[in-house]
């Protein structure tokens, strides 16, 4: 496995619903109804696109994070302190706070607020800021839930508007915005979609276990995404790593090493960042997948929403094989390395 070249090209991320991520470390299993004395707690800038941007920036690549927030919001100040290039659209409502409860065995519980509502003017300003930044981009990453006020098919409208820029488009979302995106037709299909098994099941109209436990069902659901115009599907599989399926028939599975999981929050975002970084470095699909899983694994070993530096990412420890040989069911109970439940 050769050392990847330096990533070349600009990445733009959109986080329409950013967050401050407040992580509460529980001393034991969550005791519902009781008073718990907390150990460490911390607050980090978050939101899926923000996490992708932070990981891309940590790798030294050119990135800008587009998001709505008041100019003096703690999220903006935290990202400025990290030196992350920002294109913010000012709004009047503070950024939401999302809560993460982590238990000593790695179990992670997320409590996400709905987010600051965006009116039509804010949505138009956000789209304009995105298109302006995307003009010089190799990749545009649209990530996370949509805030109150955004139409559920907004990502579809953005993909259509972005097509003229020539940038490759990745989308990572769930529930209604995901369903609306895939229902919108091939002209709204992103180049890359990053579902986890829960999101793939939402798309297939099946319970999660039906695709998580049955590779044939998962592959059938992925095939329908290609039929709807999605070129590449990066399917994150939690403890089992990830699979990459390409519209020209390529299929690989990457298995992570086992590591002690601190927090799975942001592991999927870091996987997506790794994939994009490898693409910017000119890597072939199987190596893009390897890098994605290495980044997701490194993220899961870090606390809260922390993103890994390249020195913490071990690509050589990830095994990539064609197809889905001996595909085991993802661990249902205990989260493990690379787990992507959030
Ligand atoms: O509510 P959404 O937008 O679906 O997800 C938001 C969020 O859970 O995603 C990130 C982890 O992927 C966190 O930084 C953030 O709190």
UniProtKB/TrEMBL annotation:
Gene3D superfamilies: 3.40.1190.20
Carbohydrate kinase PfkB domain mapped to chain residues: 28-310
KW Nucleotide-binding (keyword) present: yes
Keywords noted in UniProt: ATP-binding, Kinase, Nucleotide-binding, Transferase
Residues of the signal peptide: none
Pfam families cross-referenced by the UniProt entry: PfkB
GO cellular component: cytosol
Gene Ontology MF terms in the entry: ATP binding; phosphofructokinase activity
Location of the region described as Disordered in the Swiss-Prot/TrEMBL record: 322-342
Family matches, as PANTHER family: 1-PHOSPHOFRUCTOKINASE, 1-PHOSPHOFRUCTOKINASE-RELATED
Entries under NCBIfam families matching the protein: 1-PFK
Family per similarity comment: Belongs to the carbohydrate kinase PfkB family.
Name of the protein this chain belongs to: 1-phosphofructokinase
Organism: Modestobacter roseus
Record lineage: Bacteria, Bacillati, Actinomycetota, Actinomycetes, Geodermatophilales
